[in-house]
């Protein structure tokens, strides 16, 4: 956003035109060229950008500091790209939502009986849902892959729910899933509604995560050492997916630019989904090794002598000095 504000204010660039650019973009906080298809909707939609988000970004420049939920070891290139015109950035992450004690949760009970790193979690965030055709492609992929699974399947939102999905009843699942799917996979998987995501990722049985790539989910996956197969849906998730796969090598892609707001969004086919599941569950992959390494670094960042603890202390000192 800070770079787009410079393009707009200092160079007179209509940033909404970048969405239609035929070439990849050079953005200082990314080491590699960025395809226009992964740019967040709010940056390339003229009304959103010109009427709201450019004003927010200008205000960011007036701040004395910006607190970011990340850590230096994860995003060194991005953090080094800031110049003296940018407020000081304090990296205080990863800030992870604590695991809730849910001893009676049936999904967690089922996980306890599964072997280590054999279960793939499919979970798409608080606003994640798919129409029936896409649900069936996912189901076909899961069944063909042969892996154990937990699938958080949510009902498309009604008008009253304002974009948030609802829950299926047990009888409703048969209306959207391929005939016989639940019976054929009953011994190796669970189709459920909401799941306690952090608690599921924390279980050693989980070996892969098909995710919408919201930033909290990205940090949780790294904290617990579970590789992600990317499937962004909305907001900034396409850019998160691109960074995870192309910049950091910490994920595999099912899609980098899937977008529910795109009226021409194509169906992601079962073959693509199955390929992503198999890759994310590969126990010997380079991605898994890098994720495990980053797991250790994420925890060290918050320990004595760690980068995020030092940054937090500096933030406190700077607050005190301002008073």
Structure commentary:
By secondary structure, this protein is α/β, with parallel strands linked by helices. Helix content is 41%, strand content 12%. It contains 14 helices and 10 strands. It has helices at residues 2-11, 41-44, 46-62, 76-80, 106-111, 132-145, 173-176, 181-184, 197-202, 215-224, 237-247, 270-280, 286-300, 307-322, and strands at 65-68, 88-91, 119-123, 148-152, 154-155, 166-167, 189-192, 206-211, 228-230, 251-253. Strands 7-4-3-8-9-10 form a 6-stranded parallel β-sheet, with helices on both faces. Helix 10 (215-224) links the parallel strand 8 (206-211) and strand 9 (228-230). The radius of gyration is 21 Å and the shape is globular. It starts with a helix and ends with a helix. The model has no long low-confidence stretch (mean pLDDT 94). One of its GO terms (molecular function) is UDP-glucosyltransferase activity. May glycosylate diterpenes or flavonols in leaves. It holds the Pfam family UDPGT. Belongs to the UDP-glycosyltransferase family. It comes from Lactuca virosa.
């Amino acid at each position: 956003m800070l770079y787009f504000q410079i393009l707009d204010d200092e160079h007179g660039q209509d940033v909404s035109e970048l969405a239609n650019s035929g070439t990849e973009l050079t953005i200082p906080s990314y080491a590699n060229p960025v395809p226009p298809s992964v740019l967040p909707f709010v940056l390339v939609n003229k009304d959103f950008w010109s009427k709201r988000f450019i004003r927010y970004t200008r205000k960011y420049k007036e701040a004395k500091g910006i607190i970011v939920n990340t850590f230096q070891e994860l995003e060194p290139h991005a953090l080094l790209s800031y110049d003296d015109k940018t407020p000081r950035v304090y990296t205080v992450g990863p800030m992870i939502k604590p695991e809730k004690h849910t001893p009676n949760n049936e999904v967690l009970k089922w996980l306890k009986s599964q072997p280590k790193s054999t279960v793939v979690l499919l979970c798409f965030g608080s606003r994640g849902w798919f129409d029936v055709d896409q649900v069936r492609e996912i189901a076909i992929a899961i069944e063909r892959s042969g892996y154990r699974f937990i699938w958080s399947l949510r009902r498309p939102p009604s008008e009253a729910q304002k974009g948030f999905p609802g829950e299926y009843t047990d009888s409703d699942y048969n209306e959207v899933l391929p005939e016989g799917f639940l019976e054929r996979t009953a011994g190796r998987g669970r189709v459920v509604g909401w799941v306690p995501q952090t608690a599921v990722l924390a279980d050693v049985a989980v070996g892969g995560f098909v995710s919408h790539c919201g930033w909290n989910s990205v940090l949780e996956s790294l904290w617990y050492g579970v590789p992600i197969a990317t499937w962004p849906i909305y907001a900034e998730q396409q850019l998160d997916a691109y960074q995870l796969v192309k910049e950091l090598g910490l994920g595999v892609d099912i899609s980098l630019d899937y977008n529910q707001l795109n009226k021409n969004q194509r169906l992601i086919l079962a073959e693509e989904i199955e390929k992503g599941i198999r890759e994310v569950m590969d126990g010997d992959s380079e991605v898994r090794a890098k994720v495990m390494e980053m797991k250790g670094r994420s925890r060290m960042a918050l320990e004595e002598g760690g980068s995020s603890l030092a940054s937090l202390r500096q933030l406190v000192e700077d607050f005190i000095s301002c008073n």
